[in-house]
UniProtKB/TrEMBL annotation:
Residues 1-106 form the YCII-related domain. This is YciI family protein. Pfam families: YCII. Belongs to the YciI family. It comes from the Bacteria. PANTHER family: BLL7171 PROTEIN, BLL7171 PROTEIN-RELATED. InterPro entries: Dimeric_a/b-barrel (IPR011008), YCII (IPR005545).
Length: 109
């Protein structure tokens, strides 16, 4: 089953950085075992463009849609047997310590 894992910043990160896993190790391990399909870091929110169509008119806004202190800073597409496995992959990610990870299964369509 595929999962989208949003990697988000957090205003309350882990304060003991010695406990934070190495991202290069996490990527290498999950790429090697096929649980990570792809992923990347995103440009900062200031580089975002929000697109809406209202009344047939395209409305563009600079920056992210939401006004929040926490922002999406990256993503990973995971291939896992179930949610429990996806959670195990996420809990080993460095941003589980210094940020937040949101896991969502792909919708059945």
């Amino acid at each position: 089953m595929k999962y989208m894992m949003f990697v988000c910043s957090d205003t309350e990160p882990e304060t003991d950085e010695s406990r934070v896993p190495d991202i290069d190790v996490w990527v290498a391990e999950n790429d090697a075992n096929g649980r990570r399909v792809t992923g990347n870091v995103l440009a900062p929110p200031s580089a975002a463009t929000t697109v809406r169509v209202r009344g047939g008119e395209v409305l563009l806004s600079d920056g992210p849609f939401a006004e929040t202190k926490e922002v999406i800073v990256g993503f990973d597409i995971l291939e896992c047997a179930d949610l429990d496995e996806a959670i195990a992959v996420a809990r080993a990610h460095p941003m589980a310590y210094t940020g937040r990870l949101e896991i969502r299964p792909y919708a059945d369509r």
